[in-house]
Amino acid sequence: MHALRHELLPPSGVDFAIALKLTPSTIPKPLPKHDPSSFLNIVTARSNILRVYEVRHQPLVTPNHVDSERQRRVPIRKGTEPVEGEVEMDHGGEDWVNLGSVKADGQQDAATAPRLYFVKEHAVYGTITGMERVRTISSNEDQLDRLLVSFKDAKIALLEWSESTHDLVTVSIHTYERAPQLAALDSALFQPTLRADPLSRCAALSLPKDSIAILPFYQTQAELDLVEQDLNLARDLPYSPSFILDFIADVDPDLRNVVDFVFLPGYNNPTIAVLSQAEKTWVGRLKEYRDTAKLYIFTLDLLNHTYPVITTVEGLPYDCTSLLPCAASLGGVVILTSNALIHVDQAARRVALPVNGWAARVSDIPVLPLEKDSDLTLEGSHLVFVDEKNFFAIRKDGMIHSVEIVSDGRTVSKLTISPPLAQTTIPSFACQLSNGLLFVGSTVGPSVLLKTYRVDEELPWGTVESASPAAVADTHTAMDIDDEDAPNGTVSGGPTSRTRSVIHVTLCDSLPAYGPISDLAFSLSKVGERHIPELVAATGSGHLGGFTLFQRDLPVRVKRKLHVLGGARGIWSFPVRQSHRVNGTSYEKVAHSFASERDTVIISTDANPSPGVSRVATRAAKTELAIPTRVPGTTVGAGPFFQRTAILHIMTNAIRVLEPDGTERQVIKDMDGNMPRAKIKACSICDPFVFILREDETIGLFIGETERGKVRRKDMSPMGEKASRYLAGCFFTDFNGIFELATTDIAPNNDRNATTTLQAVVTAGSQSQWLVLVRPQGVMEIWSLPKLSLVFSCNGISGLDAILTDSYEGPASSLPQDPPRKPQDLDIDQILLTCLGESAPALHLFVFNRFGSLVVYEMLPTPVLPDMTSPPNGRTSFLKVKFSKVATRHFELSRQEETEKTVLAEQKRISRVFVPFVTSPNPSQTLFGVFFTGDRPSWIIGTDKGGVNIFPSGHGVVHAFTACSLWDSKSEFLVYSDEGPSLLEWLPDITLDARLPKRTVPRSRAYSNVVFEPNSLLILGSRQYDEDNNIIWEPDGVGISLPCCDCSTLELISPDGWVTMDGFAPNEYVNALGMRAKEFLAVGTSIDRGEDLAVKGATYVFEVVEVVPDPSSGHQRWYRLKLRVRDDAKGPVTALCGINGYLVSSMGQKVFIRAFDLDERLVGVAFLDVGVYVTSLRSLKNLLLIGDAVKSVWLVAFQEDPYKLVILGKDMRRACITNADFFFTNNELAITTHDEEGVLRLLSYDPTDPDTKGGQHLICSAEFHVHKESRCSLVVARRTKEEPEIPQSRLINGFTDGSLSALTPVDETALKRLHLLQGQLSRSIQHVAGLNPRAYRIVRNDAVSKPLSRGVLDGQLLQAFEQLGISRQNEVTRQIGTERTTTLHDWISLAVPW
Question: pLDDT by residue (tens digit) across 1106-1162?
């Protein structure tokens, strides 16, 4: 049996982060078009995912309701204050009042706040263990930093940003996996740590056996002269040969058992501080060995390879965990221990600050006096400097404490710690950025960007200075700070007042994340009248715990049906204003400056009855529609015109200008003299221009004359022959001046804006307008308006290349029309250039070809231009842009004969078009997106933190779509789908920054298990008591805390509103949760009473019963948990499941089958002695799968007459199974297992194979390294077109890093093709960081001669094939003897969520 494993969701959270100037946008340039908002990059890593973000200064926009409230409360509206002299003249009685002139002064710049914006994401073939910023000799030229990344298998990759590909490229990779230090058997348990010198002179990677690998970098020409290296060669090889430094042999024989190491700033040579523990100890040996940690500080002489020790500090506490280097002006390091903070300087002076009473009990180091009521724990804490003498200690519960280093010069006298400032995310990493910014990463929840700044605050009279806190947390976020509310930073007091500089910290932004997945269950979410499946995941930890709800399609709910509207061939909704005509010119009625514009007109069209009908609808009452105008014929497009004072209505044979009430103003028949032209099949409207595309692939251009209020044809002679053919086209209006035009014939005094006609200037102001066209030979052209000069030409769009750049060609010539050209699969069918994004929408190009490939490109500026003194091909204008591919999706389309022109075929025709929209799901968010109609309807959404994602809409087919605000809501859409015309809106609180739409249900506590019952959801929480609810031990000193032991509670939660209906507290820890016969809930628990007493357990059986609801609750139905039985056990009940109406439970080393006798007690009917500790139980019919922590997996059969458990087969290898499940397809059965090392195995039971000894041994048919641990799985049905009696299974696994994967069965024919493709891709494409995909997935197995990697396909690698250009896809598939279309069909049919 074979399978494809692909990730549905990447890992969530941040393990490592680094701040650097990676992309050119962060470097200020002396260009008028440079956007200074981007000033820094942050690169984050989690497992094998590398993400690049930009930090930008985003102007703060006050919400409309807040701004309106401010305007209402002040007597003078902001921005309309009287200018100098007006107030005095008004007071003098001249009755001269201000009429709203804009105040022109230097204080109009809005306040800004740093925000994170997604740039790039890569899934690498290695587990990332560290990142550092380095500068090479090339950084002196481009001023950009380089990124150094380390991996778990002892590799270092040097990456840099390539402007030509707009992506990370690999400079070099350094591998140490063959070093002698990694030959030990326990090397797999080692986690390499990466550190870099502050001046980028070298980097160090920790290795097993107390050694590090040193990688030196060239920095100056003098270093190159010493080694006789060429400068040009140093740009390609910016490093000298690396070497391995053995601490024991080369530094000090006692430097062993390294805990942490860091580079120290302020030294002429690279200097390292190493924290080690020569003699290991623990709490039970503290009487013999307690202060066993040592600190070594030594320098590196990279030329002579000598390492003199500067300082050695002994007698440090045994529980030292990490080092934090201090600034060069202060010197030394801060050591973090579980109970104290210690500063050590170069002279070995130690200053220790205890945070609880345990510090004096576990260490003899002299400490400062313990503050009263100080009882903190520093396990899991992270330290980060705010300035030279202040740092934050962020504890594992997210509490932030400010610590001040009090010193006289470089001599530290004491450390002071403040009370908690605020609670932030649970930290996994913390680093200091520039400009007072801090980034706190988390693996279990959101990562946050904090801003710190100093404010001089006045001390109250009589207050002791040391009694006031040195740091405070602002209760507002940076979003609430504007230019009027921001603190000045200085506060002046009276002559006798005193001031103190206080650090303020505020939240600026966050990266959303949900953390590890503890358990999974499918529930039914009611949306309107329908129930849709929803994947419920128990995620997070601590106060960040809760539920995350995933859906396959973007969930929408129907607000109302609009059958009277129709619209099977198109719906358009837009605002039209009433106009006033003065001297023949139309002037729009100016709306109130604070009034938001709403749609006023809806135009819909149907093809039936022939020749079609078009309607103009307006809002009549609160919710009703009035249709004052009906016109025979089919509408191709419609939109507002003449500054939204008229309607431009395009039909298949005419262009009509309508008044706002629907009456006709002008009609232009699309005729060639007296001969009718081919029907109009597509159009684009951009006031004052109109573009039409006919069925014979000819085009027409029209322009509106604002003075006359009429439309006329526009001369297209600059574009070439009159009979030129085109496949698609659209307009674009550049509102923000993104398109930068370089010309060779523009005088210095002329404006470079391409819009120069009076009509265009009235409409667009300073906005330029452009026309995008695609010719049949696969050439995309961009023409400036209104002069129609070619400014961009690209011939790579039909091949869907990764980067589209200007080819500098002239207008493409027309293809011969004799014989007529037939449509090709690679012909571009639709094209659109519009904005996509959230708070900072960017230009994107959307392309769809007839084969079914949808590609999204991002428009980027480029400085590369041809020689302007001799422009190529006679062109005089060039757009300084390029397009980079950011998203690709391939669809299986239902084809229709192009030559069929019957009325029935016209009615069955499916329209696939891009429809841009702007929506506001909530008042503080505005999204620019695109909807793709047709038989594969999709939402294309761009967000600040997630980039571009494509989500299915969930409809079978969507014929027409438009955003609609006719009913005073900016979040509604009009959709004509297979269910008819309806008004839709998104579900509230939907997050669209991942590959699957999700909703987050915060509960402020973590859940370990989740089970769905048809009427309720069962969740588990925690409590801290002993088994009798009595406190056993009282603290016996100041600052001594109580020990804690996790317990659990049961919660019965309704998915409707996520209300807790009932609960049960067993005062035990819940290990397992399951359902039996869809009637009862079974719970397995354990009671951990410490290391001196044996563990006990119990099994509970509950029934969910309906009770009379409380009238005040507002719920029509209410449920309770009814305890039916509690059965004590002598060991922990670690796993549960049901089999044929019986309950299967584990107790220690035994598995029991129990019957529920008289619904009152559990009666054992069978048992089996198994391994050491049962971790997983799964049943299928009468088969039972038992996973063990030591002895892998057992396959057992249960028979009822007589009751008996029969062992069918065992896996003979030793493995700690964290999850096991059945996997079946087409009468084949396999067993899937995940172990704690992250290895996925496919096992089979085959008694006919002689190697299995009659089936007693399970055969391992495939091994696949996932490199992460899975503790939960779900089996769902996968139904194919053949529809067998028994559907195939698809296995969905949740992982501890937050990722979600699917395992899908693959037939033998597709496996052969995809396996060959996988091998070809691993060899023929460039992989990020130069890593090997095949080696990443191979599992070491000494029992076989070659790896068992053929049975499981790598979806991460195969997904790269979908992103390739067409020519590259053809090249790859040709080498393996198959077709590109066949391979894509295989991939599309397999790579679906569920």
Answer: 888 888 877 778 888 899 999 999 889 999 999 988 999 998 889 999 998 877 788
**Strand locations in 862-1015, DSSP E?**
877-879, 881-890, 914-922, 925-932, 938-943, 947-952, 958-964, 972-977, 980-986, 998-1002, 1010-1013
Q: Of 330-339, 715-724, 1168-1177, 1319-1328, where does mean pLDDT reach its minimum?
A: 715-724
The whole-number pLDDT of residue 1004 equals 87
Average of per-residue pLDDT values in the chain: 84
Sign of the CA dihedral with 237 first, then 239, 240, and 245 last: negative
Comparing C-alpha atoms, which of 1053, 47, 1071 is closest to residue 519?
1071
The DSSP bridge partners found for residue 204 are 195, 214
* Alpha helix segments (H runs only) across 851-913: 903-908
Residue burial 644-656, b: 16+ Cβ < 10 Å; e: rest: bbbbbbbbbbebb
Kind and range of the H or E element at 1363? Answer: helix 1355-1363
Share of the chain above pLDDT 70, in %: 85
Q: Pairing between strand 258-264 and 112-123?
A: unpaired
The four Cα atoms 1353, 1356, 1362, 1368 give a dihedral, to 10 degrees, of: -90
Top-confidence residue, 221 or 892: 892
Question: Terminus-to-terminus CA distance in the chain, angstroms?
Answer: 20
Single-letter residue type at 395: R
Rounded to 5°, the CA angle 125-536-950 comes to: 55
E strand residue ranges, 13-145:
16-20, 38-46, 49-59, 112-123, 128-134
Residue 224: how many CB atoms within 10 A of its CB?
17
Q: Is residue 171 within 8 Å of 161, Cβ to Cβ? A: no
Q: Contact at 8 Å (CB) between 545 and 1004? A: yes
Distance, CA of 499 to chain centre:
44
- Residues contacting residue 555 through CB under 8 Å, at least 6 positions apart: 525, 527, 532, 954, 986, 987, 990, 997
Pair of tokens at residue 22 = 């990676």
CB 1072 within 8 A of CB 1151: no
Annotate 232-267 with b (16+ C-beta within 10 A) or e (fewer): eebeeebbbebebbebeeebbeebbbbbbbbbbeeb
Give the lowest-confidence range in 83-97, 456-470, 1115-1129. 83-97
Q: Return the bridge partners of 1075, or none.
A: 1081
- Burial group, residue 749, by CB count within 10 angstroms (0-12, 13-18, 19+): exposed
In this structure, how many other beta carbons lie within 10 angstroms of the beta carbon of residue 306?
11
Pairwise CA distance, residues 948 & 1236, whole Å? 34
Q: Is the peptide bond before 611 cis (omega within 30 degrees of 0)?
A: yes
Are the beta carbons of 731 and 769 closer than 8 angstroms? yes
Would the pTM count as exceeding 0.85? yes
Helix 1380-1390 to helix 1308-1324 angle, to the nearest 10 degrees?
A: 110
d(CA 1251, CA 631): 78
pLDDT in tens, 632-668: 999 999 999 998 889 999 999 999 999 888 889 999 9
Q: What is the 3-state secondary structure (H, E, C) of 691-755?
A: EEEECCCCEEEEEEECCCCEEEECCCHHHCCCCCCCCEEEEEEECCCCCCEEECCCCCCCCCCCC
Which residues, 6 or more positions from 1306, have their beta carbon under 8 angstroms from its beta carbon? 2, 3, 4, 1314, 1353, 1390
Q: What is the DSSP letter of 870?
A: S
Backbone angles phi, psi at 179, to 5 degrees: -70, 150
Mean pLDDT of all residues in 345-351 = 91
